[in-house]
Design goal:
Layout (H helix, E strand, L loop, with lengths): L2 H51 L8 H78 L4 H33 L7 E4 H15 L5 E5 L4 E4 L1 H17 L7 E8 L2 E8 L30 H11 L3 E6 L5 E8 L5
Parallel strand pairs: 2-4
Antiparallel strand pairs: 1-3, 4-5, 5-7, 6-7
Length: 331
């Protein structure tokens, strides 16, 4: 068993222990509440019994006084029941609140751990590939074609590292509210075509089909929109086979500018559809490279541009990511 497997097993055991202690404490508190009710009710019955015994049997109001004491006893019992129910509801509400906080913290801790593992791998891989390519060109005398292949590989890894850094910086700025959206006239068709052309150069073996219409302008931040398109294309390439085509479309419909990125890859299961835009989420195809930030950042960028993003199945397999923006003139 590897060190990582042992560590994960230990974390799972620790998580189970936390939940076990939590439920034991909650059961103890509820049991104490029940014991409190039983003790008070017994005390109430005993006091009522002694009060009735103290009534003079020769007293003409003996029966009425006994009835009054019985009513007082019943009222006390009702009071204890009401207070017990209120305390129980408060305890359960507090317990659910604490449970959700603990669970959220544990989930976030696990997500951040997975993210750090992924980001470490994502940073080390392009650095290692770049270093190896440069050392190969330095040590060996290669022909022109071989040199160009290594240079293309190095540029591809550098672009990948640059995209990762951009995602990290943008994530930090969005989370802290430090990014100021700039608005300019952006032709989404031209921007999408440029992004697709860049990916064609980076992945010459992939089939990327481009279909765009004219006059698809909107007011937005060109840098952010470019990053969103790149994230969608990167996602399509990661989660589809080498021979599967990828399509990018931009068109107008009902005065909205629509961007679609279509792939014929692995697809997304029904259970994961509602999570694809969550921070750090990665699908079942975890063997693919990634940090789980691309789609989350894309959604945030679309939201900042007052647009909508959705994901649907591509028949017979694959996914269609669609983004809709309001068409507008230069602001």
């Amino acid at each position: 068993m590897s060190y990582q497997e042992i560590k994960n097993k230990f974390k799972v055991s620790s998580l189970r222990l936390v939940y076990l202690v939590y439920w034991v404490l909650l059961a103890y508190i509820i049991a104490a509440l029940i014991f409190w009710f039983i003790a008070l009710n017994n005390q109430n019955n005993e006091l009522n019994y002694y009060k009735i015994q103290m009534i003079d049997v020769n007293d003409s109001d003996h029966a009425q006084k006994a009835r009054d004491l019985e009513i007082q006893k019943n009222n006390k019992t009702t009071q204890y029941i009401g207070e017990g129910i209120i305390f129980l509801l408060l305890i359960m509400a507090g317990a659910m609140f604490v449970f959700r906080i603990i669970r959220r913290q544990l989930v976030q801790s696990q997500q951040q751990y997975n993210f750090m593992m992924a980001i470490t791998h994502e940073l080390k891989t392009p650095i290692a590939v770049t270093k190896l390519n440069l050392e190969t060109m330095q040590i060996r005398k290669l022909d022109y074609d071989r040199q160009q292949k290594l240079i293309r590989s190095t540029i591809q890894e550098a672009n990948r590292l640059n995209a990762l850094c951009n995602n990290m910086l943008l994530l930090s700025q969005i989370d802290t509210g430090g990014y100021t959206l700039t608005k300019e006239k952006v032709d989404l068709s031209t921007l999408a075509s440029d992004c697709a052309e860049d990916f064609m150069e980076r992945f010459p073996d992939r089939n990327i089909e481009v279909s765009v219409e004219d006059e698809t302008t909107l007011a937005g931040d060109k840098l952010l929109l470019q990053l969103a398109i790149n994230n969608l294309l990167e996602n399509a390439i990661k989660y589809s086979g080498k021979d599967d085509p990828i399509g990018i479309k931009v068109f107008l419909i009902n005065k909205k500018v629509v961007l679609q990125v279509i792939d014929e890859g692995f697809g997304i299961s029904s259970a994961e559809k509602g999570k694809v835009f969550e921070k750090y989420f990665r699908g079942a195809q975890r063997q693919t490279k990634g940090t789980g930030l691309g789609l989350y950042l894309t959604r945030e960028i679309v939201k900042q541009h007052h647009g909508d993003i959705s994901m649907t199945n591509n028949v017979p397999h694959g996914c269609i990511f669609e983004v809709q923006f309001n068409s507008s003139k230069y602001v």
